[in-house]
Design goal:
By secondary structure, this protein is mainly alpha-helical. It folds into 2 domains: 30 residues; 167 residues, 2-Layer Sandwich (Protein Binding, DinI Protein, Chain A), CATH 3.30.910. The protein contains 5 helices and 4 strands. The protein is elongated, with a radius of gyration of 33 Å.
Length: 198
């Protein structure tokens, strides 16, 4: 009886020893899902945004739009400030009714200026969202095609402050993606120029 119990114990230990060794060996190689290796790569989004021509052009356009809207607002604000200064200078020469009417008018103009500022801010937010969406679509479309051609199941984004604390440099495809995106953007520009010329 004791020999049978010892034999069973030895067989259990033997099984546990070799099954745990097989699990360790399985995790040492490339990641395998359903017997298919999973290929993963990543791009550094900061580097991509810094070197992708569309991103640079879009950032410049957005900055120009912001400056244009800021100039419009400042022009209106200066006009209102001039009216307020004139009122303060001439208020003593007005009747109480006239002064009250001008004050009401200036208050309405201040409220309109605030609404106009909110409108400009909203316009800028919409412009930023439009550009961000276009940038995202261009990069995502290119990466989808690139991933299919190069057999990547995942292309992740990696930047300081992201959830990824370490990524092996051999998985970094940022430079290749930037080159490809810039080539595609240049072709897109040439195509737009040829359509405009026709």
């Amino acid at each position: 009886m004791l020999n049978v119990a010892l034999l069973v114990a030895v067989l259990v230990l033997y099984f546990l020893h070799f099954s745990s060794q097989n699990q360790t060996e399985a995790t040492d190689g490339p990641m395998v899902v359903n017997s298919v290796p999973v290929n993963i790569a990543y791009i550094n989004s900061d580097t991509l945004l810094k070197n992708y021509e569309f991103s640079k052009v879009a950032a410049t356009q957005l900055e120009n739009k912001k400056d244009e809207l800021q100039a419009e607002y400042e022009n209106r604000a200066r006009g209102l400030q001039t009216e307020i200064t004139n009122f303060q200078r001439n208020a003593q020469n007005m009747t109480i009714a006239q002064a009250r009417a001008v004050e009401e008018d200036l208050t309405k103009k201040q409220q309109n200026l605030l609404r106009y500022q909110e409108s400009l801010t909203q316009t800028l937010i919409q412009e930023e969202a439009k550009i961000s969406n276009e940038l995202y679509n261009k990069v995502a479309d290119y990466l989808r095609d690139y991933g299919l051609v190069n057999n990547f199941q995942f292309v992740l984004t990696y930047q300081k402050g992201s959830g990824v604390l370490y990524a092996n440099d051999s998985l970094n495809i940022t430079d290749a993606i930037v080159i490809g995106l810039n080539d595609a953007y240049q072709l897109e520009g040439q195509h737009a120029d040829s359509v405009t010329a026709q």
